[in-house]
Amino acid sequence: MAVQDGDGNHIARTAPDPSVLIVDDDKDLADTCEYWLRDDFVVRVAYSGQAALEAIDDAVDVVLLDRRMPGLSGDEVLTELRDRDFDCRVAMMTAVEPDTDIVDMAFDEYLVKPVDEQDVIGTVEELLVRGEFKDTVREYFALESIETILTNRDSDDLHDPTVLTDIKTQLDELRATQESTIKEREQQLKRAREINSLLRTVDSVLVDGSTRQELESAVCTSVVETGNYDGAWIARYDEVMSHFTCQANAGSRVPAVGSEIHESNPIAESIQCALKNDSVKTASKDTNVDNTVIIAPVTYRDATYGTLAVTVHGSASSEEQSVFDEIGDRLGHSINAVESKRLLYEDAAIELEFEHTDTRDILVDLSVEFNTEVRVEGLSPTADGVVSAYVVIDGADADTVLSMLSPLEAIINARVVTDEPTETLFELQLVDASVLLPLVEFGSAVESLVATDGNGSVTIRVPSQSNPRTIINTIQSSFPDITVTAKRKVDNNVQSLNSFKRRLEEILTTRQLDVLETALTSGYFEWPRDSTAEQVADSLGIAAPTFHEHLRSGERKLMKTFFAERKRARENGRSKTEISSTLEAETHLDSDVDVDAGVDSDTNEGSTTESEVNSELN
Length: 618
Fold this sequence. Notes:
Blueprint: E1 2-4, E2 10-11, E3 19-23, H1 27-37, E4 42-46, H2 49-55, E5 62-65, H3 74-83, E6 89-94, E7 109-112, H4 117-130, H5 135-151, H6 163-208, H7 212-225, E8 231-238, E9 243-251, E10 260-262, H8 266-277, E11 279-284, E12 291-300, E13 303-313, H9 318-345, E14 348-356, H10 362-369, E15 373-381, E16 387-394, H11 398-405, E17 411-419, E18 423-430, H12 436-441, E19 445-452, E20 455-463, H13 468-478, E21 482-491, H14 497-507, H15 510-521, H16 533-540, H17 544-579, H18 582-588, H19 601-604, H20 610-617
Parallel strand pairs: 1-11, 3-4, 3-5, 5-6, 6-7
Antiparallel strand pairs: 1-2, 8-9, 8-13, 9-10, 11-12, 12-13, 14-20, 14-21, 15-16, 15-19, 16-18, 17-18, 19-20
């Protein structure tokens, strides 16, 4: 997503993720730090001083360095890094209590173990900001860090307490020559801490939220509770009524929840612009008050859920705009996740059927190219926008299919999974040119996609509170030859826990059950692992390869049983709905979703025409 200022000018986004090198002979701690940091940084890990010197290069921005390591110590590594003129910030991360000897060490920060996730992430974030300062200012903050560390220790425990006086003198001298710059940088660091704290808080509330309303409300509250923003609210666009509605709010001078923001409102115009351009916009809220509204789209890939509007006293910096750009993305991702989960737990869902003859979709095009049937057997979406589709193509030569697919930019990888005489199962990693991508992005469950000689059908399920028209419009914007043919409510029947348990106990051997239970109890499935495979195998009195064999067999049976049950439950849910009366369907449907008008043809003993379905959706 791009960022724009109030005049519509694009603001450049940040450079690629910064790089962090973790150096510690404690492998568990090093791996844990890598786990904490890897979502936001490019992380390298070295388990010794020598390995650190081999891993370092000019791309590394921050080093987390243990002092006490066998062989080459952390102090020696630090000296070597400075001798080689690597321009990286270094934080010593060690159990060695600091003493006055650290004054002559060229590090930027000192962390005393044990450390937690916030210690590590906060230090890396601050050192990245300090890395932008000029040398004399960086020296000031490094000295200030040393003064703080040593002051926190009892002076009787220090080898030479008079060093503290010398440090204070140096700090006063540096501040006297760089006072205005240092004050400015202190404000910059304070602001960076506040921003990073806000992002961490938002991440925390997004993890805890279980519904869209909870997520939207929690984000607004988190923003206002920082004390830096007057108000925050979420706007959703109603395509039928052509107005925005406030769905959640916090703070002052915000619309009431449920109130409409019509197109004549100046803020509505900015919201529309932000959504249209998929970019952050700023707008003046009131010509008589020095307030600015930051408007950030709430999106996930092609799915748009609304906007986050935040009121700032004064002007909004490009940094703030980028932060709320990021928050909008994170909120959109979380909404998509809870919408998808709702399909698993709700008693009912909306099922949509489409006629799909659009050869812009690579799967439909394949059915034409090979004059055969193409069907999707399964999907596996990833966080980076790739959808792995497991596709069966009847009667086509596997090598010919791969040769045709290899030059296509829409498929980053294709491979044969199984090759039978009558059909071949392929894994296609899709990034474009398939209706599967927008369907997955909206949190839809794709029940089936089958195309034969260019004539295809798609069946999907979406949560009962979803707006089917939004989904259909998004699909048809890229694939105009897709038409909706049916819409119905279906029950999400699920097997009882006891029944599912009995089924598993029937198919799992005693040894497989023992292996799975022991692995779970011993923390083998945790990360970092509480027990290794070798340790679990030893406790069971079996060899590690035997443990892995039983574990994989048990996991495979567990997954097959689970997904077979999901398929069975969905089929049972559809059958139950199709034999129910129209009145029953209307009784159980949520009137806000307006699905009752779209009960399928089997319910009403007549075919629902395309025009009737479209009328119902509108």
